[in-house]
Write a structure and sequence with these properties.
Distance between the termini: 84 Å
Strand content: 5-15%
Shape: elongated
Bound molecules: ligand LQSD347O
CATH architecture of the largest domain: Alpha-Beta Complex
CATH class of the largest domain: Alpha Beta
Largest sheet: 7 strands, mixed
Helix content: 40-55%
Radius of gyration: 32 Å
Number of domains: 3
CATH topology of the largest domain: 2-enoyl-CoA Hydratase, Chain A, domain 1
Length: about 425
């Protein structure tokens, strides 16, 4: 006989050394803890019926099952352990004939109830059920081990210019045109919109934007301006403004924490959007450049409103009017960047941190972001609208057209 009736545990021989009914076999001291523990057991009536023609298990199979049970790594839970206890008792002693324990002897009573509920189940059938139950636990554990070993990162389908993956509750949106320094083409704007919509709805806790290769992003792809048919520049400007407005609106409205991992130089719109991100981590190789006047253009991404708020008007003027390129350390000192990391350890340090952030309660983060950003949303949409209206005119100006022509003649690299 293997049970230790006076104690709060099911014997090791029955359920394995990791499978005690209550941890450490401790006895229940107070009434409250007894009640809680019994509630936790949540024991349903155990009705085990033999299927008509089940094959008889041998004594050897039954003993093997007992050994396998000891090797389980995961605790199967009190409910299953009670079933195992009851089946073991039935298999080795037959139907329950011992007197019913008192109402306040919670554990003994739970065990007695489980055994008694087996009624007149034969000892052979109890062995059979015991062996089947152990076998199902063993195969559940081995299939969960296979799942755990599988790569966790899932890549989202349907993107060409960006790579979108989800892992550890983080959706990562990676600019992926390294040969163009990750310049944002029309297609990429649309794909980022789609990826943000997906990330807003999926199970991830946070979203991250980053770049593939040496650059974070070289801003708007200047080819976006050269692809217009002759005589269609106005239409191109109008459509561009519509797309830009929608694109920036998705950053304004993004409901989860949005983190920029700035792996290298950032130019133009990829810099202005940082004001709409909740955290900006930068490698010490990153630089921050918004050469709008040099390109005959004007600020976007709500930077005309957010940059003065973040860094003060004087510093914002240097960047947005006079094209001052900031180092990562300067951008951090001015509040645009949260923290700078040495490039050598950048990815490792940042992703370890993000993994920890992404394990925080998802809904709490979302409502907190809403509190931090919500009041500003209306204002930000108004700013976005105005910036796009101004840019629409800029794109038709000689100043802008000349700057773009110069770039393609390779006279005016930034
Ligand atoms: C729907 C429309 C919305 C518009 C929103 C408004 C947004 C505004 C902005 O973002 S303004 C900023 C625009 N960006 C630039 O002006 C950057 C232009 N690029 C450069 O100055 C340089 O390429 C560089 C400094 C980024 C890198 O220089 P370098 O290291 O010498 O590399 P290459 O110049 O040889 O670059 C390799 C290859 O990539 C092409 N490329 C890089 N950036 C862009 C770009 N932004 N647009 C188009 N093409 C770009 C470059 O031309 C090279 O191509 P090639 O190999 O010569 O074919």
């Amino acid at each position: 006989m293997h049970t230790n009736e006076g104690k709060w545990k099911i014997s090791d021989e029955i359920v394995g050394s990791r499978c005690r009914l209550f941890k450490n076999g401790r006895s229940c001291k107070g009434r409250y803890s007894c009640v809680r523990r019994v509630q936790a057991l949540c024991i349903p009536a155990i009705h085990l019926h033999m299927t008509a023609a089940t094959m008889q298990v041998s004594q050897q199979d039954f003993e093997k099952a007992q050994e396998q049970l000891k090797l389980l790594k995961k605790d199967p839970g009190n409910e299953v352990k009670l079933k195992l206890y009851a089946l073991f008792k039935q298999a080795t002693e037959g139907p329950c004939n011992s007197p019913k324990p008192g109402m306040l002897d919670f554990v003994k009573k739970a065990k007695w109830d489980a055994w008694n509920s087996l009624g007149n189940l034969s000892q052979d059938n109890a062995k059979q059920k015991y062996t089947e139950l152990v076998s199902s636990l063993v195969s559940a554990e081995s299939s969960s081990q296979v799942k755990d070993a599988a790569p966790e990162e899932s890549r989202h389908d349907g993107y060409e210019t960006i790579i979108v993956t989800t892992k550890n509750n983080i959706t990562k949106i990676m600019f992926n045109r390294p040969e163009r320094k990750n310049a944002i083409s029309h297609k990429m704007y649309r794909e980022i919109i789609k990826a943000l919509e997906e990330a807003a709805k999926n199970d991830s806790t946070i979203a991250v934007i980053t770049g593939n290769g040496e650059y974070y992003c070289s801003g708007n792809d200047l080819n976006n301006f050269t692809n217009a048919e002759a005589g269609e520049t106005e239409k191109m400007a109008k459509n561009g403004a519509v797309l830009l407005k929608e694109f920036v609106a998705h950053f304004i409205d993004f409901p989860k924490p949005l983190i920029a991992v700035v792996n290298g130089p950032a130019i133009g719109i990829s810099v202005t959007l940082l004001g709409l991100c909740d955290i900006v981590y930068a490698s010490d190789t990153a630089t921050f450049h918004t050469p709008f006047s040099q390109l005959g253009q004007s600020p976007e991404g709500c930077s005309s409103y957010l940059f003065p708020k973040i860094m003060g008007l004087a510093k914002a003027n240097e960047m947005l009017l006079f094209n001052k390129k900031l180092t990562a350390a300067e951008a951090c000192a001015q509040g645009l960047v949260t923290e700078v990391f040495p490039d050598r350890t950048f990815q490792k340090e940042v992703w370890a941190r993000l993994k920890a952030y992404a394990s925080l309660p998802k809904n709490s983060l979302a409502v907190s972001k809403q509190l931090l950003r919500g009041l500003e949303k209306e204002k930000l949409h108004a700013v976005n609208n105005q910036e796009c209206e101004v840019l629409k005119e800029r794109w038709l100006s000689d100043e802008c057209l000349n700057a773009i022509v110069s770039f393609f003649q390779k006279k005016s690299k930034l």
